Structures are given as C-alpha cells and as structure tokens.
Amino acid sequence: MAEEHGFQAVEGHRPCANNCGFFGSPATLNLCSKCFGDHPNSAKSTAENSLLVASSSATARSTVENYPAVPATGSGAAQAAGRPNRCSACRKRVGLSGFKCRCGTTFCGSHRYPEQHACPFDYKALGREAIARANPVVKADKLDKI
After folding, report:
1. What is the Cα–Cα distance from 110 to 90, expressed in whole angstroms?
2. How far is C-alpha 30 from the chain's CA centre?
3. Helices marked H in 1-146 — which ranges?
4. What is the mean pLDDT of the chain?
C-alpha cells in the first residue's frame, strides 16, 4: 500500500544498539543520542586531544620564535589595568562610564572637559591643522595664459 501512495520507509531509523528503546542512526554508531553521549569514545577522544595539544604547542612555539623577547614589568601591567577605573583628577571610580580624553587619561563626568582638568593637549593646533586640510589655498595665476 505504501508503494501505491509513493511513501517510502525511512531507512535511517533503527533501534538503538544498547536496546534502550529509542532509535539510533548510522552517524551515531546506531546509538540513540543519550547512549552516544554516554558511550566511551576513548580511542577517538584521546586521538583528537593529542592532535589539539600538538597543534597548540607548535603554534605557541612559532609565535615565540617570531617575536623578540620583551622584558615585562609586573608593576607596569598592574598600573595600566588600575588606571582606567578611576578619574585622574578626583580619583573617583568611573567604571564603564569613564571618559577618555585626547590627552590619554580617563575622567569622570564632571572632569571630562579640558577646562576642568587642565588638559595639556593642544586643541588650537589640532583645529588649525583641520582647517588647513579642509581649506586649500587658492591663488590666481601670475601669468596670463595665451
């Protein structure tokens, strides 16, 4: 009767190899999803883990060889991590709402303006350069072209 209506039996559904009552698939060694997860794939997993370890160690060696050794100072790294958490003017904790100034320091909401924290950045020179780039000099020709 299935042939008359064009239906075909599903070939991938077979009972689980552990006889748990569920269906398994050939992709999971004829095991259901639970039994496949519980199935000890010791040979497969150890081979994959050894490949991952070997590739990661080879990558680490190549990156170490490519870059020269730079002496790392522990106190400098700790200070750099500690600076952005506090305002440079009042030492108030700023967290994520800190404002980074063009002079490179972080400030709270009340000290974020250059006038409030005596910013050493030269805004006038920056403005002059921006105007000079935006407005090229226009000169008339000195000689009349024939």
Report:
1. 10
2. 39
3. 2-5, 33-38, 42-66, 74-82, 123-134
4. 73
d(CA 87, CA 80): 13
- CA 25 – CA 13 distance, rounded (Å): 6
Asked if CATH classification 1.10.760.10 holds for the domain at 83-134, the reply, yes or no, is: no
Checking if the pLDDT of 65 tops 70, the result is: no
Amino acid at 132: A
Residue pair 121/137 in contact (Cβ under 8 Å)? The answer is no
Q: Where are the domains of the chain?
A: 2-64, 83-134
Return all residues near 84 (Cβ < 8 A) that are at least 6 apart.
94, 98, 100, 106
Are 25 and 35 in contact by the 8 Å Cβ rule? The answer is no
In the predicted structure, residue 116 carries a pLDDT above the cut 50 = yes
Task: Report helix, strand and coil shares of the chain as percent, to nearest 5.
Answer: 45, 10, 45
Q: Can you give the pTM of this predicted structure?
A: 0.35
Q: Is 28 helix (H, G, I), strand (E, B) or coil?
A: helix
